[in-house]
Specification:
The complex is a heterodimer of chains A (679) and B (284). By secondary structure, chain A is mostly beta strands. Chain A has four helices and 33 strands. In chain B, strands 1, 2, 4, 5, 8 and 9 form a six-stranded antiparallel beta sheet that branches. The chains are: A mainly beta (679), B mainly beta (284).
């Protein structure tokens, strides 16, 4: 039995508070002497919402680049960074934590990628055409979506929801010069008070892109299409059923940072739901859903020259799940309850073709048919006071992993002779978030504790090659549950013409899971540097701080910007990998008479805290400048919207800390988007 | 509700019935002691025959497990207490020599005798193997000689090593198990004999055989948690552990160490020296 770990270790909290106090101390004096007009008490949560919905008429002005990939939308969020292995299928990270520490769901559905090398984060299986918004919760504020450490992202599907709009449709197309990306999309919707049907499709095809200085990045092409249908039918007043089907397929996806490409990444995502306005008299907004998704991912190296050995690496991931949730309001208490569960099956294999044709094929199971069962209960109480509010939340979950395949079990027993086929754990999360309004200042502070089980790769991966640090990775089925104590604090000064927020969070993580080199092991992948075994570090610390602001210069001009600082160290004070250097973003937006324009700058400082042991090299400071122009025309009842822009105006050749193998990012890029909507 | 109760009752009854009956059946199953084996030779004699069984279809160079039984034609029964022994002899053009072999011993079934022979070479038109059997039948000592064919294994993999050690002794090392290797930790088993003279190959005890499996096709990838083979007196064989991380072609690099830990044959696998001169080959 492992030792019991105190829920809120004193040291971590003290340190966290100290850091927050120090940080906030720097910023508060600059903004305190402001006039305070009466403002309605509006809760400012740490949660963020990124608007995506492409076809929705009025949102176009807010989007600098409609029809950009979902990845680009997410990247525009101030709390999300994207890890890039090419032009496609970027992996979202939040608070410097990636997939295995985040709960990423699509409309509340748990979906798990089928690629052992994380080439298919689930955000790659939907497109902007399907989505209304991305709901983002930092840290345990994301626990409503699942067990998490770093936070949760829910990609909310776009639905008409019985709005009496009748028929409407739109056609959209975009072109980008750099990688000659062509995008064609369309949607057709019908909605009345009894019934709605939304359908959309989108097709994207891109060739290799060119980094700054006309440097072609080979194997960065991709092609993908996505269709979705969702529908709802009102059974009676306050009672409706709904269904969703998404089909997403990508072919010929190049991964310049890896030694393999993807010939097929396919997802079928379906769900049926039942919604009722009330339940048992007291509960309201009762929503339930049953869902199933099936993902197939096939890696392919047949188009690569000079591979030392040709290999096939298909992977499958199937998930079935449910949730049911309801609200309950009692005076100042606003309760929310959710009961959810899923069953996932992850299977991946690798077949290598020996250069001596007479030798037998080399076969291994890289994911040994791992069955994951997770059933959880989430509850929150949002208590409102006169000028303050308190949100208490908890998630309690049962989590089990079973290795279903004997071949895979015996393979892992080479490393862990005593391992059990099944591993169960109980995962807990608690959080308290307090918001207080003093004149124009909003103070937000929270303490929370969360746990997560190791991912399939961390627990059961078998010789998974990671080209970032050039090591083979082997999972450990006997890993301890990772846990995190988190403290966050932010202060916002809100005025009609400007708003400024300073925030910071600190994660003290126990049993931090990371690959550690085992020099006694021999590599499997030809050319790999060594073998790492996933291991629990005693602890690790992550600290993130940001300062963001918005200033309304006039009715037409708005200025916004943010700067963020991140730091992550392990129990020996060494830097953790993939931690962002100081980064900043600023934009000047103009909007008047259906004409919009923007000028934005993105940049980061030099990465001073990096760790060569994890394959990192120092990434240099950079800044890029982009501009966009848009105009909306009314043609009778219909809408024509044109938007053009130029990204990376100075054709800077740069790569960021998240770019695998320092593959440079896209250079100067011109884009043009046309959307025509028929009402 | 009532029907559900009945269904449940029937279900439980049937489950208990099924489980009871299967328990009863098990002990009564008669086991054929040569089930799954091939009778590769039968020596006809006046009043009896000697049947020779193997797992393989024919005898091969390397380790061969062989079972024999003697059928008394008069009583139509298999003979117990035959106390058989055997002697393999290679008839070459200019000389004769024997092969390392075990005694023939009783198996669980008293009429079946088991042993093994490690053939060092294949037979051909002019050079042939002969096995001379001695046994008692109804109180009389009998001798039968059988000319046999020994072929090279069809997989052409090296599983038998005949070599001169640094102590100027000639050794024979032969692979026994696993017959069906798996991606797992396999029980590795081998036999080790030394050549005293042309006709005598005693077992070598208490030496040590370190194991280093490699995949030459995968940059000489190796596996963890292998265990050196050491002598087991009960089986008179060398037992160790062999981890195989994937299917394919493996070269099991070996070393032979005597009681004092001195290397008699084989080298460490390093960057500069990718393979040992003492090895087995596996494919699966």
């Amino acid at each position: 039995m492992k030792a019991l770990i105190p829920v809120f270790p004193l040291k971590g909290i003290l340190m966290g508070c100290l850091w927050c106090a120090l940080f906030c101390g720097v910023f508060i004096p600059q903004v305190h002497a402001q006039v305070t007009p009466a403002d309605s008490l509006k809760l400012i949560q740490l949660n963020e919402v990124v608007i995506i919905s492409a076809g929705k008429q009025l949102d176009h002005q807010k989007q600098r680049k409609p029809l950009s990939t979902l990845d680009e939308f997410l990247e525009s969020s101030r709390s999300i960074n994207m890890v890039k292995r090419g032009a496609y299928a970027w992996e979202p990270t939040m608070n410097d934590m990636a997939s295995e520490r985040l709960a990423v769901t699509i409309d509340g559905m748990q979906i798990f990628g089928a690629c052992t090398d994380k080439m298919d984060p689930i955000t790659s299986y939907v497109d902007v055409s399907n989505l209304a918004e991305a709901q983002i919760g930092s840290g345990q504020q994301g626990a409503v979506f699942g067990n998490t450490i770093g936070g949760g992202i829910n990609l909310k599907l776009d639905k008409s929801n019985f709005r009496p709009t009748g028929w409407n449709g739109s056609l959209e197309s975009a072109f980008e010069s750099n990688n000659t990306m062509r995008v064609f999309g369309g949607e057709l919707n019908y909605s009345d008070e009894k019934f709605y049907l939304n359908s959309d499709g989108i097709y994207r095809k891109a060739d290799n892109y060119y980094a700054g200085g006309d440097e072609e990045v080979k194997f960065s092409q991709f092609e993908k299409y996505n269709f979705s249908i969702n529908s709802g039918y009102k059974l009676a007043e306050g009672k409706s059923i709904s269904a969703t089907l998404i089909y997403d397929e990508a072919n010929d996806v190049g991964y310049p940072a890896l030694t393999m490409d993807v010939s097929l990444a396919r997802a079928v995502i379906g769900s049926v739901g039942f919604n009722q306005d009330t339940l048992f008299g007291n509960l309201s907004n009762w929503q339930s859903k049953l869902y199933y998704n099936n993902i197939k991912h096939v890696m392919d190296d047949t188009k690569r020259p000079d591979v030392p050995i040709h290999m096939d690496m298909p992977g499958w991931s199937e998930t079935a799940g449910f949730y049911t949730q309801a609200n309950f309001n009692k005076e100042k208490n606003h309760f929310f309850f959710k009961w959810d569960g899923f069953y996932n099956k992850s299977y991946a294999e690798m077949t290598m073709y020996p250069t001596n044709g007479y030798e037998p094929l080399m076969f291994m199971l890289t994911w040994p048919d791992v069955r994951t069962t997770n059933v959880g209960f989430y509850a929150e109480d949002h208590i409102t006071f006169q000028k303050a509010s308190l949100k208490l939340s908890t998630r309690l979950a049962y989590h089990a992993n079973t290795v279903a395949d004997d071949f895979g079990l015996n393979s892992l027993k080479i490393f862990y002779p005593e391992m059990d086929r099944t591993n169960t754990r109980f995962l807990k999360s608690f959080s308290a978030q307090y918001h207080k309004m003093v004149k124009d200042f909003h103070f937000n502070g929270g303490l929370s504790y969360g746990e997560r089980a190791p991912s399939v790769s961390e627990g059961y991966g078998f010789y998974l090659f990671n080209s970032f640090d050039n090591h083979d990775y082997i999972g450990d089925p006997e890993l301890n549950t990772e846990s995190s104590a988190e403290a966050n604090f932010s202060v916002t000064l809100k005025k009609p013409i400007f708003e400024i927020t300073a925030g910071a969070n600190y994660f003290h993580m126990y049993n931090y899971i990371i690959g550690v080199v085992d020099p006694s092991l021999s590599t499997m992948t030809i050319g790999a540097q060594g073998v790492k075994i996933y291991n629990n570090l005693d602890f690790a610390q992550l600290f993130n701080a940001s300062l963001s602001g918005r200033y309304t210069i006039s009715n037409a001009f708005k200025l916004s910007g943010n700067v963020s600082y991140h730091r992550g160290i392990d129990n020996e004070g060494e830097n953790l990998p993939l931690i962002s250097p100081l980064s900043y973003r600023g934009a000047l937006d103009f909007y008047k008479n259906q004409f919009s324009a923007s000028l934005s700058v993105d940049g980061a400082g030099e990465q001073t805290n990096y760790n060569p042991a994890y394959g990192e090299t120092k990434s240099a400071a950079y800044a890029t400048l982009s501009a966009s122009f848009g105009k909306r025309f009314f043609l009778k009842d219909n809408d024509l919207f044109l938007k053009a822009g130029i990204e990376n105006i100075f054709d800077t050749n740069y790569s960021t800390y998240t770019d695998w193998n320092n593959i440079p990012r896209i250079g100067r890029n011109l884009y043009l988007t046309i959307s025509y909507s028929i009402n | 509700m009532k029907t559900l109760k009945y269904i449940l009752a029937i279900f439980f009854l049937s489950v208990s019935f099924v489980s009871c009956s299967s328990e009863d059946e098990n002990p009564t199953v008669e086991q054929n002691p040569v089930e799954g084996l091939t009778m590769i030779y039968e020596i006809p004699a006046a009043d009896h025959t000697v049947q020779i069984y193997s797992e393989k279809q024919n005898l091969e160079v390397g380790y061969n497990e062989i079972l024999i039984r003697i059928k008394d034609l008069a009583s139509d029964t298999y003979v117990a207490n035959a106390a058989p022994n055997w002697m393999p002899i290679m008839h070459m053009e200019t000389m004769q020599h024997s092969a390392p072999h075990s005694m023939l011993t009783n198996t669980d079934e008293s009429t079946v005798y088991k042993g093994h022979i490690v053939f060092q070479m294949a037979s051909n038109d002019t050079e042939y193997w002969e096995v001379v059997f001695n046994y008692s039948l109804n109180g009389q000592q009998k001798e039968e000689a059988l000319r046999i064919a020994v072929s090279q294994p069809t997989d052409e993999l090296n599983k038998t090593q005949v070599f001169m050690g640094s102590d100027d002794t000639r050794y024979v090392l032969a692979y026994v198990n696993p017959k069906d290797p798996k991606v797992a930790v396999n029980d590795l088993q081998a036999v080790l004999y030394k050549m005293e003279n042309m006709m005598s190959f005693p077992i070598v005890e208490n030496y040590k055989i370190p194991v280093d499996p490699r995949m030459p096709g995968m940059g000489n990838h190796s596996s963890p948690n292998n265990e050196d083979m050491t002598y087991t007196s009960a089986t008179k064989m060398y037992d160790g552990k062999l981890s195989l991380t994937m299917t394919g072609y493996w070269r099991i690099n070996l070393k032979l160490l005597n009681e004092n830990g001195e290397i008699l044959k084989g080298e460490d696998v390093t960057e500069a020296n990718p393979e040992s001169s003492l090895y087995f080959e596996l494919e699966f």
